[in-house]
Amino acid sequence: MPSLGRLHLITDTRPGRDPLAVVRAALSAARAELVVQVRVEDSATDREAYDLARRVLALCTSYGASCLVNDRLHVALAVGAAGGHVGADDLPVAAARRVLGPTGVLGATARAPGTAGEAVAAGASYLGVGPCHTTSTKTGLPDPIGPAGVRAVVDAVDVPVIAIGGVTAARVPALRAAGAYGVAVVGAVSAAADPALATAALIEALTC
Ligand SMILES: Cc1ncc(COP(=O)(O)OP(=O)(O)O)c(N)n1
Ligand SMILES: Cc1ncsc1CCOP(=O)(O)O
Ligand SMILES: [Mg+2]
């Protein structure tokens, strides 16, 4: 399995956004270091998810970057993505592992050491841990766990921890100091005036 990239860009497909333009800009800055996770609204059809994932994967492939699909593992398999990401409302991790097979990249959401350990035992190859900070991109989330919460999970598992939720370049050093392998972002890139510049700043912060 190729090593996991440290910067995960999650697509923002809310109305009025242009996820492909953002992915193009981010790839131009991060190139093979980027992981793009295709995430669509729950209301999107499988056909819409498939069409976006196919386009994102083609862009990623041209830069040697990886593409994952959130929630809809059948879409990940259908387009030939590297893997997928599941959380509490999705397939259980063990079932997701069976769907993706032994070599697929499988991310699982966790915010506490206990559930993190269970996810790894069930087959997760990385963990998305958060929300680390307040986010305006997703509603209904529990309180942020901060870098200390990230550290607690990092100490409990032996897979890469990807910190998520309100991550900005300025917040990366504290998350890395807490042991995060990398970060996942929506707004820090998608809402930036210059998504390529914002991506470059995140990569710079991750490589310091
Ligand atoms: C890297 C990463 N971490 C966490 C999540 C959140 O997944 P989930 O809890 O299933 O919530 P949705 O994204 O499906 O709304 C993620 N997607 N990626
Ligand atoms: C999908 C998801 N899960 C936890 S926070 C989040 C969204 C993160 O978005 P942002 O980087 O804009 O805070
Ligand atoms: Mg999910």
What is the count of helical runs? Answer: 9
| Helical fraction | 40-55%
Element pattern in H and E: EHEHEHEHEHEHEHEHH
Q: Which outline best applies?
A: globular
Structural class: alpha/beta
- In terms of DSSP E residues, the strand content is 15-25%
Number of DSSP-assigned strands: 8
- Output mean pLDDT: 97
Low-confidence stretches: none
How is the biggest beta sheet arranged? 8 strands, parallel, barrel
The set of bound ligands, ions and cofactors reads:
ligand LCLJCK34, 4-methyl-5-hydroxyethylthiazole phosphate, magnesium ion
Radius of gyration: 15 Å
Distance between the termini: 25 Å
Describe it.
This is Thiamine-phosphate synthase. Belongs to the thiamine-phosphate synthase family. Condenses 4-methyl-5-(beta-hydroxyethyl)thiazole monophosphate (THZ-P) and 2-methyl-4-amino-5-hydroxymethyl pyrimidine pyrophosphate (HMP-PP) to form thiamine monophosphate (TMP). Its EC number is 2.5.1.3. Its cofactor is Mg(2+). The chain is α/β, with parallel strands linked by helices and 208 residues long. The chain contains 9 helices and 8 strands. It has an 8-stranded parallel beta barrel with strand order 1-2-3-4-5-6-7-8, surrounded by 7 helices. Helix 2 packs across helix 3. The two termini are 25 Å apart. The model has no long low-confidence stretch (mean pLDDT 97). The chain binds ligand LCLJCK34, 4-methyl-5-hydroxyethylthiazole phosphate and magnesium ion (MG).
